[in-house]
Hints:
The chain starts with a helix and ends in a 29-residue tail after the last helix. The radius of gyration is 18 Å and the shape is globular. By secondary structure, it is mainly α. About 70% of the residues lie in helices and about 0% in strands. The chain has helices at about 5-15, 15-40, 50-75, 90-95, 100-105, 110-140, 145-210, 215-235. Helix 1 crosses helix 2 (about 15-40) and helix 7 (about 145-210) crosses helix 8. It has 8 helices and no strands.
Amino acid sequence: MLSVKSLFREIFDNDESFRLFCSIAASGETQGGWENGRIAALVPSEQRQLAPRISRHGADEDKHGRIFRALMKKRGLEPVPVPSETDYTVLLERNGIGVAHAKLRSDRPLTVPEIVVYLAHSRVTEQRASEQMRLLRRHFGDHPEVGRAIRLIADDEDNHLAYCHEELLRFARAGHGRAIQRTLRECALTEIRVHRDVSLAVAARMGRILRWPKARSALLRAGIHGLYCYERAGGWRRMVSLRMPDRRDPLGGPATTAPEYA
């Protein structure tokens, strides 16, 4: 029977599929760390109070990248190049989501509207990350090899999502409400399409590594398309709502260190 738990157990139990999974995850987290680090450095003067929180966000993402690389090292595995069709963060940027990398590579301070774009983009992608990590925590939170890492990353992603809600609500009260809702909608509709395409690409790669039967691969593709249809029909709305989180000022302190796996 094809289930989330059986699917990921199969991926985790095979060195090659585990290496691809961790390499893709580490690359995306490291890229997110760089993006947040550059945004923190370019925050406009009137929003400088945000810089430490954005830096903390970036430090957390860097930590997650180190964790995934450490999980590979523990098995004696080296990272593999990330196939371009599976690179979620790069594909989002190419589709115009978030602050363009060309702007992040310059030394010109960002504008307040660009900070709003960054937060809206983060609100959408952190929703996805939080949901995925909660799913993994439910099924593998007690796993002897990856459970500790999953629990730590899941807590961080929940903090990141709470931070996005809190800051976007602050900007909405300051008069940016319409821009926030417009940007959230644009980001969400693009993200669900990119997520579908990346999921199909990852499933195809995993299927070749694990030699899945055609019927199993077809069933997985159907599930991915079914999720996209649900999200396109209205599921995307969960990514654009805003509410004050229970976790207040979740990124107000220093980043936690990555655990040792050696």
